[in-house]
Specification:
mainly alpha, Arc Repressor Mutant, subunit A, 2 domains, 8 helices, 81% helix, 0% strand
Length: 162
């Protein structure tokens, strides 16, 4: 594995930069490809390990690009100006509570509930099984409930019903 790394790493990063347009991003996806290679027993016997690594790195870069594109699509929904005062309070409370969640739960909730994506599409986008997305949604909603209740217990009654 070390010999493949020494021989291929710089060349792979150079090739992936063309897709990512970022050296740091290219290094990340190439490193992720090597991590996947370590987990595969058959990697040591492959005829063209560098080609396999390049394919994995490019797929990883594409997956990150698609995920980023979907998150950029969320920005208008999260930043558009609410029409009523109580929706502004709700929006701030929700965004504050979401920041307290672990990233996987936050991503699942944002994509499913804020971007209105179906569970199957969220699973594909995140590269996890649908059951994992459902579990993250369930755990995330359960974790949000006390955070949001705490926010509303601390806020004046008028702010909630203005």
């Amino acid at each position: 594995m070390q010999a493949v790394f020494d021989r291929s790493y710089r060349r792979l990063v150079g090739q992936v930069i063309g897709l990512t347009r970022s050296r740091a991003e290219a290094e990340d996806v190439v490193q992720e490809a090597f991590v996947q290679a370590v987990a595969r027993r058959e990697f040591a016997t492959m005829d063209k390990p560098e080609a396999w690594l390049l394919t994995v790195a490019l797929n990883q870069a594409r997956r990150r690009w698609r995920r980023g594109r979907h998150f950029l699509g969320l920005l208008p929904k999260l930043t558009e100006h609410p029409q009523r005062h109580d929706s502004a309070v709700d929006r701030v409370a929700l965004l504050t509570a979401l920041r307290a969640l672990p990233a996987p739960q936050r991503e699942a909730i944002a994509l499913h509930h804020l971007a209105d994506l179906p569970v199957a599409e969220v699973a594909e986008l995140l590269g996890v099984p649908e059951g994992t997305v459902k579990a993250r949604l369930s755990r995330g909603r359960a974790a949000l409930l006390p955070l949001l209740e705490e926010t509303y217990e601390d806020s004046p009654q008028e702010a909630r019903h203005a």
